[in-house]
Amino acid sequence: MQSPAPFHNGSLSRRSVLQAGTLLLGGLTLSNLFRLRAHAAAKGAANTDTSIILVWLEGGPSQLETYDMKPQAPAEYRGEFRPISTCIPGMDVCELLPHHTRVADKFNLIRSITHDIADHPGAAGRFLTGRRPQNISDPVSKFPTVESLVAKARENRRVGIPNYISNERRLKGGGSAYLGQAGEPFVVSADPNQPDFQVQDLTLSDEYASRLEDRLSLLRGLDRLRKGLDLAGSSASNDRYQQQAVDLLTSDKTAAAFDIRREAVETRDRYGRNEWGQRALLARRLVEAGCSFVTVQMQKIGPTFTWDDHGDGGSIPYLMRARLPAFDQAVSALISDIYERGLDKKVMVVVTGEFGRAPLLTYRPKARSAGRDHWPSAMSVLVSGGGMRTGQVIGSTTSKSEYPVDRPLDPNDLLASIYRFLGIDTEITYPDLRGRPMPILPTGRAIPELG
Question: What residue ranges do the domains of the chain occupy?
């Protein structure tokens, strides 16, 4: 079998038009995806040129080892790392985040977001949907998450690139729920740091391309038969959806956006030559090309699999030393790059997990290590770009980072800020599986400091 066909000069050959991988070979075709989205069309959706990059830290990062350190607290609370000053007076971060210190004037730290669900999928669902899940342990949400809702609200937006792209089909505790496949992402699961990186749904071997040639010939024959029987005009509609699929696959813009090899060596080095760094760089390329929402889940790197640092999989100092340098480099490079390229008014970057970690360190005798348990009562979130005033610390917590004492905020307030930036009316409704109209966001007020 020959190797998958690469990109050539930013355009796709006729053979590459057929390189549609899983989106054309069995299951949901790309044209069906367009059709589903059109059938679920929303009224009043904004069509502004704005985008979100969500850096999702599944497992819940510790605020005490990142953005809300408490050096005056007892050792069993503060941990072993010390805070370092940033270019913004009064905004300190962990010593393992030195790159953050130089771009602190380009982001805000929210230290007072709080909710009450301590289970991973339930907390993720609560944070990303704005609704309390019916079952906090259900890995699939019964309500659509912010990413799916944005894709739905902008489904009629045609910019030559998918509106919602992620490296995971579904975040744990999330999903498109009653929006169905119309709210699911274009998935890019391959590691952009690998020299043979290819987008699965745009690259396919000759063997599969040949099979797709046969399938498309069959579809064209069926289309001709259907047109002869069509009395309601559905053929023209189907042709439109298939044309949208072909337009996307043959778009120079799509090919160029995913071709990370076009980036200068210095730029790729700046982000970090690892999966997290190159995913962040790819996210910048995608929003620059017009994608409305890109989710970058930073999960496994080195010995770490998630940010769920109980201590049974290694001590929290050891795991933070393993992951924070790559995280620091990727996030700070993304922030700097967005501002340097003049994208800061068009793109908002949100860095968060589903909750924070417990203030009191828990020692695991068998593992001979220490960790922190789940803690939804106080968590920190980084927000950058979005045309907002930056260099702010919003809210504060108690001396041990137990609860907010100033500016307590709900996850829905952050979601309201995201929708406001995107120009999406949160009172727009979509029918659930019972046909009941469900607003995009039931409660929440946009955070004034992020305006």
Answer: 11-40+203-259, 48-193+273-450
Round to whole Å and give the CA distance between 254 and 434. Answer: 37
What CATH number matches the domain at 48-193+273-450, 3.50.50.60, 3.40.50.300, 1.20.1530.20, 3.40.720.10?
3.40.720.10
How far apart, in whole angstroms, are the C-alpha atoms of residue 143 and residue 185?
16
Give, to the nearest 10 degrees, the angle between helix 234-249 and helix 206-229. Answer: 160
Alpha-helical runs (H) found in 154-205 = none
Cα 155–Cα 161–Cα 164 angle in degrees, nearest 5: 55
Return left, alpha or beta for 373; rule: phi > 0 is left, psi -120 to 50 is alpha, else beta: beta
Distance of CA 184 to the CA centre of its chain: 12
User: pTM of the full predicted structure?
Assistant: 0.84
Q: Where are the beta strands (DSSP E) in 124-224?
A: 164-166, 186-187
- The sign of the dihedral angle between the CA atoms of 355, 361, 367, 369 is positive
- pLDDT, averaged in runs of 10, over the chain (451 residues): 41 39 40 48 56 98 98 97 97 98 98 98 98 96 97 90 94 96 90 90 46 48 52 45 55 85 97 98 97 96 92 94 98 98 98 98 91 98 98 98 97 98 97 97 97 87
CA dihedral (401, 56, 137, 76) positive or negative:
negative
Contact 287, 51 (CB under 8 A): yes
